[in-house]
Amino acid sequence: QVQLVESGGGFLQAGGSLRLSCAASGSIFSVGAMGWYRQAPGKQRELVATISGGGSTNYASSVKGRFTISRDNAKNTVYLQMNSLKPEDTAVYYCNAEIEVVRMLKYGYWGQGTQVTVSS
User: Fold this and answer.
1) Which are the contacts of 24, defined by CB distance < 8 A and separation ≥ 6?
2) What integer pLDDT is reported at residue 119 of this predicted model?
3) Smallest Cα–Cα separation from 91: which of 56, 44, 54?
């Protein structure tokens, strides 16, 4: 059984900063790519940022230069540092990870989501 547990969401004013964390635990052989997605009310879930096992990163254009994704492989944890937050960043943020549960057997997992609300 594998779990992704997110933390760090909250309510803050525009221009502020927030750091999200997502830790993978359970029966894990290795962790591959990890990422953050978000879903605003009435909208589809969208990619925010991803990071490969080797540390290569990819960002949505709307967050590039404001958000930074990083990971701690020893802790099976991915982070999202969010700066200069805007009201349009308001959404539920979900963590995603590709996890090899045994050698050569991989699954994608999602966290439960954490709410980020940015007021103007």
Assistant:
1) 2, 3, 4, 31, 34, 76, 77, 97, 99, 109
2) 97
3) 44
pLDDT tens-place string over residues 25-70: 999 999 999 999 999 999 999 999 999 999 999 999 999 999 999 9
8-44 in b/e form (b: 16+ CB < 10 A) is: bbeeeeeeeebebbbbbeeebeebebbbbbbeeeeee
Check if the beta carbon of residue 67 is closer than 8 Å to that of residue 59.
Answer: yes
Whether residue 67 contacts residue 57, with contact meaning beta carbons closer than 8 Å, is answered with: no
Q: How many CA atoms lie within 13 A of 74 on its CB side?
A: 0
